[in-house]
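User: Predict the complex.
Assistant: Input components as received:
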Amino acid sequence: MDKNYNRRKFLQTSALAGLGLTTVSASGNENVSGRTGIISDPVQTSRKSPRSSKLHIGFIGVGLRGRDHMDLVLRRDDCEVICIADPDAAAIQAGIRLCQSYGKSAPAAYGEGNYDYLNLLEKEDIDAVIISSPWMWHTQQSVAGMNKGLYVGCEVSGAFSLEECWELVNTHEDTGAHYFFLENANYRRDLLAVLDMVRKDLFGEIIHLECGYQHDLRNVKFNDGKTVYSRGTEFGETALSEARWRTNHSLHRNGDLYPTHGVGPVMNYIDINRGNRFTHLVSMSTKPRGLSAYVRDVGGENHPNAKLDWKLGDVVTTLIQCNNGEKVLVSHDTNLPRPYCLGFRVQGTKGIWMDVNESVHIEGKSPYHGWDDQEKWFEKYDHPLWRKYNDLASGEGHGGQDWFIINAFVECAKQNIAPPIDVYDAAVMRAITPMSENSIALGSAPVTFPDFTRGRWSVKKPDFGLDDRY
Amino acid sequence: MDKNYNRRKFLQTSALAGLGLTTVSASGNENVSGRTGIISDPVQTSRKSPRSSKLHIGFIGVGLRGRDHMDLVLRRDDCEVICIADPDAAAIQAGIRLCQSYGKSAPAAYGEGNYDYLNLLEKEDIDAVIISSPWMWHTQQSVAGMNKGLYVGCEVSGAFSLEECWELVNTHEDTGAHYFFLENANYRRDLLAVLDMVRKDLFGEIIHLECGYQHDLRNVKFNDGKTVYSRGTEFGETALSEARWRTNHSLHRNGDLYPTHGVGPVMNYIDINRGNRFTHLVSMSTKPRGLSAYVRDVGGENHPNAKLDWKLGDVVTTLIQCNNGEKVLVSHDTNLPRPYCLGFRVQGTKGIWMDVNESVHIEGKSPYHGWDDQEKWFEKYDHPLWRKYNDLASGEGHGGQDWFIINAFVECAKQNIAPPIDVYDAAVMRAITPMSENSIALGSAPVTFPDFTRGRWSVKKPDFGLDDRY
């Protein structure tokens, strides 16, 4: 392995000083033999030598999202931000200033083009890396990080091909390096309360689920080139932040481009990769009208960006069949005016929850054929994680979700244990995007999921959010 | 034609005495040439001789639903209930009593088995027939009625095959007899207000629609054999009302068994068969668990009906692609505990409405990224039909819907004009059921819609709910 390897031989039980916590073991729920033994043993026995120092973290991608994560890391006394990489000089400078604002020394900076992150990986003495780059870079940067033996945390995205998902899985299995898919929505307070309710059988046997990404992104996909989230018509080189790269996908691709915020939490309700799996999906798209209409509204009838051939249908709906007989309906709806709502629904033989009307019905407990306000239930079933960390998390990014995902990443990285949202989860979630594109291209034909676990889904046990640790 | 033919030669403009209304013409929107000239001419010129008497109506099927319709007809002074047919003696008796309760003479009764309706059609001097029998009888009874030259109104159902849908269409075109598909949901007050909003471009170009039948039917599918809608475990011979026949479909079939209440109203929003058409669909089903669980709850673990191999998945989701680029998501969800909600959503380039949270968002008028209470909009866009008939309709069955559908049926039958929900609409709506079954049987493969209009959809204009007539 590489020169960083020794540095990451730390003893898991000594690594929790940062939050003044103790822990006794990893979740211990991955009880199956892996191809390389990796997923059979969440605690890497070869790395159990004592560790006395802090978790050394590098950041690849320090735009707005990367700096959100860095901010959370900088507040902890069990981590150090060692280095940052970003081809954008302004982002690098903002990253350095952020470190300094916490009284920390400036991190080593790698800003010489798109590939300077490779120099970061080669030269820096780090344990872990957090990747928050544009979607197109996620796989190759993650693979490079795992190949250096680092504990990799990567922001969410859909993939571009199934091969790319396999590459992540294979690299993990070949190197033994862990990959934490940073799906923060898994920690949303209501979604964790619902997880508690699911596990306590309030909904009975789970039958049908809905989720998605229903978020009017028009002022994310376009801005005026001067202010992020402003009302504008620019994307690509002339725009700021996500509009520089994200919008390009709406121009060229038609499918569910961003399935993970919906699918991630839902997978926990039906034990995907842990006794259950996705078998196949179909996707259907509407016509694309929203982005052209928006540009016309903002920039006038003759604005050239209104006349582009936008490929992304305004609302893409995907139906996923599960091995154990459930169905998941996933919406992707980012081009039209609408209030934000991820559209969650959890429905079983005993009850139903929907987020859009913030209501729960549990048979025999809720009014006959009537709804309860969800708060009545969520107060009682607030997840142990939120009960424990409410004061630290609430007020942080995305309703506290960001705090939890970074905390979980750091705690798992310190112990070098298998993350609760792992490379197999990433592969199956990210696969939805190219599969959805394929299905639409084939007139909504069914497309089968690969089994990225090579059969181990049938014996692995649930490991996400089992208690109040991370 | 048959002997009833002369009786139905009445002048359309003289036939509106029943409600003290006047009308000048049929909607006149079917401006295309039909195979037999039928759909090119909503007023049958061959039948324009004066008519001085009332509309004479026969009823086939006088169970609970048929008697609902009969009750509405009996209150009108422009109709007479002439005859009834039903193989159930108790239903016949209840039908006779219902007529007598209005001080009318008893109708001729045809109760000698399943086929006595043929004697009714042969012997009785009627203009129109209303069919409210179990689903399995709808097509053959409608075809028999049209073959007798009657104006046929038929309750809603899904079909069993595409051939059956063609049979309806072909019989209409061969006989010139009209077929009114009695989809009452088209007249739901909120749905008509939304139709007004759609036509006034409040939502912009329509992109995505949702609808369905999300109705916990467990106490419809089962009862105790003594009281309708009671808590019981019986269906088939030992049960009452719909449980005698409807439940059998859940035992044997997997697909969207009842799509019309959702699809009917939605078709009006995107002009299906009137400039647009459904091209193909995919369906996906969950496992079936709800009905077994219900029988176990009510009748104990060992109740034999809990051990049956129920075929209907608890939640069936269908995605329909439209020629003009829209998509319709249709839910069928009748086996699980849940509050009633048909799940409507209308989404366009300028706004969105959902019924589950009773909310509207119209860009630039509603709060930024926020919802308005739908009532704020519906007050302003209440449909002319409801403004005119509120006093008569409200308080009647299904929130007034039943009053409107029967009124529309009677007004169209008196004029012998093409109904606003016609045989082509019936064919395409009813086709969803066997197509959904096919798609599910094929692993959610896409299934193409026949064009029941033989191309005329591309030139026909909208004709439903254009004004306050019917």
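DSSP finds 14 helices and 15 strands in chain A.
Let me know if you want any component modeled separately.
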